[in-house]
Amino acid sequence: MILSAAEFETIASGSHASPHELLGMHRLADGGLVVRAFLPLAKGVVAVPVEDASKPVVPLRRVGESDLFEGVVEEQNEPFEYDLAITWGSGEQWRTRDPFSFQPTISEDDLYLFGQGNERRIYEKMGAHPRTINGVAGTSFAVWAPTARRVSVVGDFNGWDGRHHPMRVLGQSGVWELFVPGCGEGSHYKFQIHTADDVLQEKTDPYGFFFEIAPKTASIVWDNRRFHWNDGNWLAKRTATDPRVQPMSIYELHLGSWRKNNKGESLAYPQLADALIDYLRRMQFTHVELMPVSEHAYYPSWGYQVTGFYAPTSRYGTPREFQHLVNALHEAGIGVILDWVPAHFPKDDWALAQFDGGPLYEHPDPQRGEHPDWGTAVFDYGRPQVKNFLTANARFWCDVFHADGLRVDAVASMLYLDYSREEGEWTPNEQGGNENLEASEMLRTANTLVHDEFPGVAMIAEESTAWPGVTTDGANGGLGFNFKWDMGWMHDTLGYFERDPMHRPWHQDQITFASTYRDQENYCLPLSHDEVVHEKRSLLGRLPGKDAERFANLRALLGYQWLFPGKPLLFMGGELGQSTEWSEDGQVDWAALEGNIFSGGMQQWVADLNGLYRDEPALWAGDYFADGFYWLDCNDQEHNILRFVRQTPACDRQVVVVLNLAPVLHRGYRLGLPRPGNWWEALNSDSEYYGGQNHGNAGGVASQETPWQHQPWSAEFTLPPLSCVVFVHD
Q1: Is 409 a known active-site residue?
Q2: What pLDDT, on the 0 to 100 scale, is given for residue 12?
Q3: Which residues is 97 bridged to in the sheet?
Q4: At CA 306, angle to CA 199 and CA 422, rounded to 5?
Q5: Beta-carbon neighbour count of residue 274 at 10 Å?
Q6: How many CB atoms lie within 10 A of CB 453?
Q7: Topology match between the domains 5-101 and 626-729
Q8: What angle do the packed helices 597-615 and 547-563 form, to 10 degrees?
């Protein structure tokens, strides 16, 4: 044996941090070559030259009673390519290239950028990647575990035995790497980590692209670049588009509970591609927003407790099938927004938590590394490698899966050190404030990266506080989001509509307040899943009155949402007036459409709202311009009547919206108008087609040169009870 006793022990025990230094083929100091292989359960091993028949076959002898095999080539001084011909104890024979004969697959430049937090494509370097090196097909593995004593890749290709494929650490980077010949797409694997505390643990790949279906937890080798995309025209159009001045009506969807098959099972990605596209086209939504598709072990978390940040969940199919779904949506002219969750992660012992035996991805300070509301861990946003993991993840979903937008969950919980914490449970930052400066910088970096490389992609913040500049460019001191969810609008509007109409006159400021701050940010108007769970009741269930009144109220509510400045978002089921709360174990109440004029009418109302919204620039081009909206009258509290104008920035297109939020029919009600001529009744929520009483204005009104309510023209209108009526200038 040429090895020292200490070296032999590190190999035999699987504790050497760089096994490539001892295993494989190496020059001897006195001339010649040595070949070593550590092969538990092997009976015999021979090194067989490839490509050059002049090179010798090298039998390897077992070293003592160990699993180390060693052979010497005295007549050769230059290493050559070889295979290991292995005879296992079972009698089975294998021939494979020696994994310890390959150079690192990650460059020093990659490692430097990762250490600085600036490797934008780190997901192409870390994790598992099928590739061919020097004509040899296999998979390169890489994982960051800086405090580990040893790391091995284990899987179905080596009997889950960590002794077979120990990895080498690359310098001081904390990155462990190994190329495994013969391992390809579909192989199951984990990383076996020997911690500094002498604990042996198995972890899934933080950069894994595919996972076993829960409750199983193994990562699966996968090649995300094999899918052939056909959405080039869509992407080109998106690149040339500013989402702020385009129509965007969003249908929020939970993949597993939108629709079930005849067996009560969730639809797979390919099935969703057919059914969902047909439905969204019919309903005329411009975008679909998918609640988190990232892999998650705990189904009732709805995807918000992510265990695989780089993998679409395998519950509904493969990553390639998810790519097919997105591609099909794009071909149908429908944008795809994905929920992104960088605010926290669960503490499952096989995932990110305590990854190499201690805090790695989570902040080491319990005041900053624990989320008190959800019992989860909080990322260490200031650690360069963690910041890189997250910012590259935002890029990944736009790059690999062609996402048109990312809705970032729970932004407020990231931004504040005292979020859900009492006095004494948090420590101010270095400036003495409560802001999480590292988190805000991470978000700013992620937004800048996405905007730089994927123009037209929308970054959307679920931010529930008054943090300044959420939708201001990062270069100007903001966070750099395109849009912010207007949680204030949502709470105020629902609070108003939940009231009995007889009490509404005293609370009209609830529904008008959003107009006082609409120019502060670029807002989305959400009626999301959060508003129809946890005993809050469905949207319909929250509204007063019997069925006819409740549906009338809901039609008016959704009309107000679609026509007020901001991009509307509606959670699935709301478009039917579903009576029950959402449950992840159920599905949308499609049966309500059978013989129910109110549900069918509600569905048609939303479809027609979308149709008018998409076709009429006055309803979206001026969302974030000061003159894109103004009140004609918001002071008729006595009658619960509101009137406003939507118009394009050039003021060449105008729409008048009238809301009568009392159960009272008004005939001959005079309203001021901003222009002379005919005003076409484009939509009326009281139409019999929507389940209403069919009160209306016979197609429109003609203005009269009668000044009224500070307007130079006016007309007499019929205002149906509990209604939303839209007039477009002819």
Answers
A1: yes
A2: 78
A3: 83
A4: 85
A5: 12
A6: 12
A7: yes
A8: 10
190/211 Cα distance (integer angstroms): 10
Q: What is the DSSP string of 156-219?
A: TTTTT-TTT-B-EE-TTS-EEEEEEET--TT-EEEEEEE-TTS-EEEE--TT-S-BPPTT---E
Dihedral sign, Cα of residue 699, residue 702, residue 707, residue 711: positive
Give me the residue spans of the domains in the chain.
5-101, 108-220, 232-248+286-485, 626-729
Q: Which of 67, 177, 370, 409 is catalytic?
A: 409
353 closest CA partner among 193, 583, 570:
193
What is the structure's pLDDT at 168? 95
Q: What is the CA radius of gyration of the chain?
A: 31
Spatial contact of 415 and 439, defined as CB atoms under 8 Å apart: yes
Q: What does the pLDDT read at residue 51?
A: 82
pLDDT in tens, 680-712: 999 999 999 999 999 999 999 999 999 998 899
Whole-angstrom distance, CA of residue 624 vs CA of residue 591: 39
Encode 452-464 in three state secondary structure.
HHCCCCEEEECCC
How distant, in Å, are the alpha carbons of 4, 64, 106, 148 from that of 16? Answer: 13, 19, 20, 11
Give pLDDT, residue 358: 96
- Single-letter residue type at 464: S
Q: Is 597 exposed, middle or buried (0-12, 13-18, 19+ CB in 10 A)?
A: middle
Q: Is 78 a catalytic residue?
A: no
The helix-helix angle for 319-331 and 232-239 (nearest 10°) equals 70
* 490 contacts 531 by C-beta, under 8 angstroms: yes
Fold category of 232-248+286-485 in CATH: TIM Barrel (3.20.20)
Q: How confident is the model at residue 545 (pLDDT cuts 50, 70, 90)?
A: very high
pLDDT at 1: 53
Q: Which of 719, 681, 716 has its CA nearest to residue 700?
A: 681
Q: Give the homologous superfamily in CATH for domain 108-220.
A: Immunoglobulins (2.60.40.10)
In this prediction, residue 498 carries a pLDDT of: 97
Q: With helix as H, strand as E and coil as C, how does 678-721 read?
A: EEEEEEECCCHHHCCCCCCCCCEEECECCCECCECEEEEEEECC
pLDDT tens digits, one per residue of 410-432: 999 999 999 999 999 999 999 99
For 594, the 3-state DSSP assignment is coil
Token pair, residue 13, equals 């025990």
Angle of the 269-283 helix axis to the 597-615 helix axis, nearest 10: 80
Least reliable range by pLDDT among 40-54, 276-290, 345-359: 40-54
The set of residues, in sequence order, having a beta carbon less than 8 Å from that of 600 and lying 6+ positions away, is 593, 691
The one-letter amino acid at 54 = S
The sheet that has 33-38: what strands, in order across it? 24-27, 33-38, 68-73, 58-62, 42-49, 82-88, 93-97
Return the pLDDT at 622.
95
Structure tokens at 466: 């008054």
pLDDT at 410: 96
Exactly one of 399, 462, 521, 623 is catalytic; name it.
462
Confidence class for position 649, pLDDT limits 50, 70, 90: very high
Domain at 626-729: CATH architecture: Sandwich (2.60)
The residue behind tokens 């990110």 is: 352
Class of domain 5-101: mainly beta
**CA 229, CA 320: separation in Å to the nearest integer?**
11
